[in-house]
Here is the input.
Amino acid sequence: MNIEFGLGSWLGAFAWAMLGLHFLCLGWYTLSIWSWNRRLADSVAAGDITKMNSPVAPLITVVIPCRNEAESLPLLLKDLGQQTVPLELLVIDDRSTDGTKNVAEAAGVRCIKNKGEGKKAALRQAHSQIETPWMATLDADVRIGKNWAMSMEHSINQSASSAVEAILGTVRLNATPESAWERFQALEYGCLMAWIEGGVCAEKLAMGSGANSVYRTSTYPAESLNEAQASGDDAYALLAIKKHGSHIAWNSDPQAFATTQPVQNWTDLWNQRARWASKTNDQADGETKCVGRLIAAVELSFLLALLGTISSSDVAFLWILVAVILKTLINQPLISSAAQRYKLPIKPSDVLCFPWRYAALVWGAWWQLLRGNVKWKGRQL
Here is the structure.
């Protein structure tokens, strides 16, 4: 009897301690959300690109590293063929087994085989063959509008007087309005993009997506790409650019957006986020690491408080609901900004369910990391 009472008391004390920690983390999280949202509001959209003079010679070579993208690649090549300014195209086939190289060559696009293994080896090889002043990297599974290249060239011209070595663009998910699962992914990814965009514009972050980036060819840090890691080309390159004292710009023009598809299930989403999280130790700047730790603290304290509350009758479940309500209110400014900025199809139920779904996302990604079961393009990380 005394042992059971003692155990219950310890569980209750643990639950209260975790709740207290969680509320402290939410306070820190509130200040961070306010700061991120303010940065995003201060970012400036691109000017009128219709007044640009089209260059005679290509300014950008678009590099598309591919591994088994025979189904997606034709759609992107079609988009690139409809651009309103001239481009050079280069596809790097990373040991595909589905005829990706044949698809590229059938479209009349130059395609070379990756002599190494992995995306970073492909980018190294591509960089050595580029003759245009700028190189862009696009993932084979994204779609772009017809003015994507013109918008990027406009950003290049705007940055001509400054030491800008990279220009990043938004990647958004193409969510089906009727699918709550896809809307959640689009909203979560949109919040991530909003944080990154605000941080880059404030010159606080060296982070972006290699699925939609443009780099100055002459200063692209190909030597910084660590081929021992299967992914993370964008993180290595941008961190090297920042360490060299150069600037990174963000093209917030909607015409420069790249769109991709949501993943099909929780397992794929957990694996993707675990892969991203695995890069933060040696491929992230100080603020990125700090934010990663903040999110980990918020979600871990919530999980432990929830487990402690379930295991003990000393703590009312009402406090868990209070924490969820607070987090919903705290997230609202960033969610609203991301939804409006990236034209995301969200419903009120998405906002209400977001704290629970996001917690499940973080917990599942942790589990994948702990298991060491993180793969990308069929390769173990």
Summary: Residues 18 and 304 are 6 Å apart (CA to CA). The chain has two domains: 10-42+286-370, 49-276. Confidence is low (pLDDT under 50) at residues 1-5.
